[in-house]
Design goal:
The two termini are about 60 Å apart. The protein is of the alpha+beta class and about 350 residues long. It contains four helices and 24 strands. Among the domains are: about 25-40 and about 280-350, conserved putative lor/sdh protein from methanococcus maripaludis s2 fold (Beta Barrel), CATH 2.40.420.20; about 50-85 and about 160-195, Beta Barrel (OB fold (Dihydrolipoamide Acetyltransferase, E2P)), CATH 2.40.50.100; about 85-160, Helix Hairpins (Orthogonal Bundle).
C-alpha cells in the first residue's frame, strides 16, 4: 500500500472521533410562570402643612412686641405681634371728637327746623324757601353725624388691629419682622403652618400620573420612623408640570398619624399600590440576549437537549436585577437564566441542578 493510501485510511479511521458530539453544557434554567404583577410605586417627598398662612397687620405702625419665635407652637387667638397703640388711640379719639361735633350740629339743625315749623304756613314770617333750607340743613347734619359715627367705628376697629393674633392652632415657620421695625398694612409679619391637615408633598413624573390616579392604596413611611406605616389619600394633583424638573406636584393627606409623630419638613416615602397589569413572566435580567437588535431569551428544550433563541417583548425592568416579559413565552417553558451569551443552537445543554453561588 502506498504511503498516500495509508494516510487516507488513517484519516477515515480517526474522523468519527474528531467530530464526536461535545459533552452537554450545564445551564441554569427557570420555569416560566405567567401571572399579573403586583406593582408598587415609591415616591419621595416631605411633610408639609395643608394650609400655610401669611399673617399681617391690617394697619401700619411700629412693632413694639413680638412674643413668639420661629418653631413655636401657638394656639388660636394667641398674640403674635403688637403695634405701638399711641397713634391708633389718637386716631380713635379724633374720630370720637368728630362724632361729638357732628352730633351737636345735628341737634342744632333739628332744633332750628322745629322752631320754624312751629310758625306754620299761615304765619306772615313763614317762607317756603326758608323752610326748605332749614330742612336740608337738618338732613345734612344727620348725614354728617352718620358719617362721623362710621369713621369712629373704623378707627375703633383699627385700634384693635394693632394686635396680631393667630387665627388657628399651628407652628410659626417664619418671622420676617423685628421689634422696632415700621411696617405697612398687609406686610407679612409671620407665617403660620396650620396644625390640622398635615400632608406629604411629592413630585410625580409624567409617566406615573395614570398610576397615581388609579392608586388603590397609599402608604406613607417616615425616614425618622421607618417601622411605622401610615395611610394616606391623594388629595390634589398639580395641573401644570414644573418647568425645570418636568414633574407634577401631588398632595397626599395623612389619615392616621399619631399625635406628635409628624413634623413639618420630615422626609417621607409614599408607596402606591396600583391595579395589577397584564400577565408577565419575571426573570433575571441576565436571561436577556440580543437577536438582530431585538430582545430575546434562550428557551431550553429538555427532550432535544438544545436551547433555541426566541424574541420576546419586555414589559419593563424591575428592582433586584429582574425583567418582566409580556410576550413570547408560554407557562411551563424553561428559560436559560445564566450563560445566555455563550449559547449556540447546535450546542447540547443540560439543566444545572446544583447549588447557586
Amino acid at each position: 500500500m502506498s504511503r498516500l493510501s495509508s494516510v487516507l485510511l488513517l484519516l477515515l479511521l480517526t474522523a468519527p472521533a474528531a467530530i464526536a458530539e461535545p459533552a452537554p453544557r450545564p445551564v441554569r434554567v427557570q420555569t416560566v410562570e405567567m401571572a399579573p404583577e403586583q406593582r408598587t410605586i415609591a415616591l419621595s417627598g416631605s411633610v408639609q402643612a395643608r394650609t400655610l398662612a401669611t399673617l399681617a397687620f391690617r394697619v401700619g405702625g411700629k412693632v413694639i412686641a413680638r412674643p413668639v419665635e420661629v418653631g413655636d407652637s401657638v394656639r388660636a387667638g394667641q398674640e403674635l405681634a403688637q403695634l405701638d397703640p399711641e397713634d391708633l388711640q389718637l386716631q380713635m379719639q379724633a374720630a370720637l371728637s368728630a362724632v361729638q361735633a357732628a352730633a351737636a350740629d345735628a341737634t342744632q339743625a333739628r332744633a332750628e327746623l322745629s322752631r320754624y315749623q312751629s310758625l306754620g304756613p299761615n304765619s306772615a314770617a313763614y317762607m317756603a324757601s326758608e323752610y326748605d333750607k332749614r330742612l336740608a340743613a337738618s338732613q345734612s347734619a344727620d348725614a354728617r353725624l352718620a358719617q362721623a359715627a362710621r369713621q369712629y367705628a373704623l378707627a375703633r376697629d383699627q385700634a384693635a388691629y394693632g394686635t396680631l393674633s393667630a387665627d388657628a392652632d399651628g407652628v410659626i415657620t417664619a418671622l420676617p419682622v423685628q421689634v422696632g421695625q415700621v411696617v405697612t398694612a398687609g406686610q407679612t409679619v409671620a407665617t403660620l403652618a396650620y396644625a390640622a391637615g398635615e400632608e406629604v408633598s411629592v413630585d410625580v413624573p409624567e409617566n406615573r400620573l395614570a398610576d397615581l390616579r388609579a392608586a388603590q392604596l397609599v402608604t406613607i413611611t417616615l425616614w425618622a420612623a421607618p417601622d411605622q406605616v401610615l395611610h394616606g389619600r391623594v388629595r390634589e394633583i398639580g395641573a401644570l408640570a414644573d418647568p425645570a424638573s418636568r414633574t407634577f406636584a401631588a398632595k397626599i393627606t395623612v389619615l392616621d398619624a399619631p399625635p406628635g409623630l409628624l413634623s413639618f419638613g420630615m422626609t417621607a416615602t409614599v408607596r402606591l399600590a396600583v391595579p395589577p397589569g397584564p400577565a408577565v413572566a419575571v426573570l433575571p435580567a441576565a436571561a436577556l440576549t440580543d437577536d438582530d437588535g431585538r430582545p430575546a431569551v434562550w428557551v431550553f428544550d429538555p427532550g432535544r437537549g438544545r436551547a433555541e433563541r426566541r424574541r420576546v417583548a419586555v414589559a419593563g425592568y424591575r428592582e433586584g436585577g429582574q425583567v418582566a416579559i409580556s410576550q413570547g413565552l408560554r407557562p411551563g417553558e424553561q428559560v436559560v437564566t445564566a450563560g445566555a451569551a455563550l449559547l449556540d443552537p447546535a450546542l447540547p445543554v443540560v439543566a444545572w441542578t446544583g447549588a447557586t453561588r
